[in-house]
Amino acid sequence: MKHIILYSHGFGVRKDDRGQFTDIASALPDCEHVMFEYNDFDEDSNTMTTTPIDVQAEMLKGKFNELANNNPDANIDLIYHSQGCVAAALSGIPARKTVFITPPQVVSSNRAKKWKDRQGATVESDGSIIAPRRDGTKTKITPEFISSVRGLGLEKLYNDLSNKTTLYVFIANNDDVLGKTEFDNLKADIRHLPGDHNFSGDDRAAMVKAVKEIISE
Q1: Residue 109 clears pLDDT 60, i.e. is over it
Q2: Are 171 and 191 in contact (CB under 8 A)?
Q3: How far apart are the first and last CA of the chain?
């Protein structure tokens, strides 16, 4: 039976999610792997413009429906990282299995202030914030994106999703982006793994192995 994995990347990164998704794909060579961009990237200015989270959810749902319609007999699993988990929860996709990698417990519109205060950040006339990233790129955070994450109750969204799919959650023990994350009331198979937010370095292999075991079951 054909096996498809659809991926949902995090905030301000490209479709491979800084190599996490390509590493997972390499460990599952018998699956078809579908990665796509939520955001617009301007190569000339090296700037990524964020897409509102509700629009991301519709894009994800559209891609899933396209895959399901074109492959009616296939197993389709979903793997999401960080803010990509929020788009997944909003989309409510009824996949066979869903894996959340370092999902946020809250998404606050106040995060924009942190980006505005980042060294080298600028604010455009429409209120968009352009902030430099550690990898040399820049991220443009629009007022529409900020409005789209305001007031989201993530644990309820995650639990609603868990009623439609088998949900697995990986929490990084040393998450350098989200800090300590606890989901006391989340209806999911929650696993704590060593690593930072992106499971960098030697910790990547253990995360990839854990995802492979889940998908292969």
Answers
A1: no
A2: yes
A3: 14
